[in-house]
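Postdoc handover notes: sequence design on the structure in folder B. Input tokens:
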């Protein structure tokens, strides 16, 4: 009996030691992940008593947008801004270009962080007569404003930085320039009144297909190429690079002919004008064009058309001397 008790005691002692070892190993190896809620300081509030960590687009969506704006026939996804979710609300509000402006053209974005005065979203819910009488939003009760609690929440969210779902203050986006359109024509006067002549080459296409190369008469020693470029932060005339490249290959411009554009603005028309000396270019061959520009804020130049685009884009940006 004594031997049996001794054996039982020995096994019990070993079990306790094993549990202590396992517990020690668990504490040593299993690090508890950081809890982000530990960083929240709920004593920091806005003037309306809303905790700053709650003053995000998620909170605004829950309290106002989902109940008063994302309604059938309103902002439920059929047009912008889209208030179906916090994500869609944020992406179509903050630094989102406006569609409808007032007669003075005051506004550029729907929401600008820290600025209710120039945020058209704030203007639309507070101004009874944005463009016409009683066009205040929302329109379910025409002319009747949102309650003060909702208006104060919207204003407080904007003035606190228009924070996203995670409490981050967004930065003004800086997109690449947009190369909108080009025109090719026979001659131009560089003196006012500046206007395109009636004889345009880019409207005369091979086989009358709009995406085929346009035709430049082989008798012409040059033609003019005008391209319109816009940007979200850089003025049209402040664009850099402004090169037109011409190649006999659709996707290889390493040895292309290069020509520099000159900025022209007259009567609301804004273009970069390139003189193309065609006498130095091959005849009866498809000549592909690409335009290169930089807004001064990107490491790489903007290029159009790009290699990954479908072929009709490249043939639309091409011509043949014949």
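Designed sequence:
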């Amino acid at each position: 009996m004594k031997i049996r008790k001794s054996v039982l005691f020995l096994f019990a002692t070993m079990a306790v030691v094993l549990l202590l070892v396992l517990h020690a190993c668990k504490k040593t190896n299993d690090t508890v992940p950081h809890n982000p809620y530990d960083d929240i300081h709920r004593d920091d509030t806005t003037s309306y008593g809303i905790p700053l960590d709650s003053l995000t687009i998620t909170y605004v969506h829950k309290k106002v947008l989902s109940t008063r704006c994302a309604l059938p026939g309103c902002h439920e996804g059929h047009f912008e801004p889209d208030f179906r979710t916090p994500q869609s609300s944020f992406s179509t509000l903050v630094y989102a270009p406006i569609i409808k402006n007032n007669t003075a053209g005051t506004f550029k974005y729907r929401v600008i962080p820290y600025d209710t005065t120039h945020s058209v979203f704030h203007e639309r819910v507070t101004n009874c007569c944005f463009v016409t009488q009683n066009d205040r939003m929302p329109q379910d009760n025409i002319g009747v404003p949102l309650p003060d609690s909702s208006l104060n929440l919207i204003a407080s969210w904007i003035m606190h930085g228009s924070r996203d779902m995670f409490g981050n203050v967004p930065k003004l986006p800086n997109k690449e320039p947009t190369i909108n359109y080009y025109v090719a024509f026979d001659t131009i006067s560089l003196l006012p009144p500046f206007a395109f002549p009636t004889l345009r080459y880019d409207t005369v296409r091979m086989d009358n297909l709009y995406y085929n190369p346009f035709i430049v008469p082989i008798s012409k020693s040059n033609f003019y190429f005008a391209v319109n470029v816009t940007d979200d932060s850089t003025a049209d005339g402040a664009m850099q690079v402004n090169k037109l490249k011409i190649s006999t290959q659709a996707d290889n411009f390493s040895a292309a002919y290069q020509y520099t554009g000159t900025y022209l603005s007259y009567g609301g028309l804004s273009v970069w004008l390139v003189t193309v000396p065609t006498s130095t270019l091959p005849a009866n061959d498809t000549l592909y064009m690409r335009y290169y520009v930089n807004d001064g804020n990107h490491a790489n130049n903007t290029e159009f058309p790009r290699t990954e685009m479908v072929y009709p884009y490249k043939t639309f940006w091409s011509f043949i001397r014949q």
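Context for whoever picks this up: Strands lie at 178-185, 214-216, 223-230, 240-247, 257-260, 262-266, 269-276, 286-294, 302-304, 318-321. Don't rerun without checking with the PI first.
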